[in-house]
Design goal:
The protein has 6 helices and 15 strands. By secondary structure, the chain is an alpha+beta fold.
Amino acid sequence: MVSFAVPKDHTNTLDRGCIQSADDGSIYQMNVDESGIQIFQLAERDIAELKEEDLLQRIIAEDDANGIEPMASYKSITKTRVKSRMDTYYKLPWTFNSNRNANKSVTGNPQQVQLPSWLSAYADGRDHSLTNVPYCWGGWNAETFVSNINAGKFAGNTCTTSSGYVSGTVGMDCSGYVSVAFDLPYKHGTSTLSNCFTKVSNANVAAYNIMNKASSHVMIVTKVYTKNGTKYVDTYEESSSAGKIVVRTGRDFLSLYNSGYVPMKYNYIQ
């Protein structure tokens, strides 16, 4: 049984969609309201210790007697559902306005924010109906993306030199997209996806595996096929260079593998 110790002034419930795990194993929750974004560090504590601390607590168990869904548990998911979630955000409609979704919404360091290049063509102060969730370094708030955009948050962030997510920006990075597609309980980085994905052999790589290069990039495989003796894969990925989710076809599998990408299967795929 695990307990999350929460700072007393943090009265919100533990929304699993706002919980993120850092590479060092520490756990954070992002709280978004009319005042902006606040980041709280959650700590694992022994039950006995909690009785002595001035903290709120919520017990997270594999089999919760109260029927509350564990906030950090993995859920089984079908390939059809994964594809549906991938396409939802690849095709997500939203309205961009460069005056509304500008740097004034950035509550982090504005020097570490860069508008995805494809959005620059629409930076004329007018409303533009667009699709696709833009790349955002450290982001994965796809389910609240449209509401955050409408509230004036900065659209995406392709500056990857900061230590992590810059508050006031919205969108997804590559591992954020994988986390959303597989409905993971919190955001994983490319170095922590091994917590719920297992390496598969080259011979067994299949659709809805991922190709993961730890500390670098990750993509989702949607099709595997062989032509003239060469194995190819089609992929979806949230790309920092493109600044959005892209679909790529006919990619040489061996070339990807030799450049460091490891095929992995989600442990809870149906």
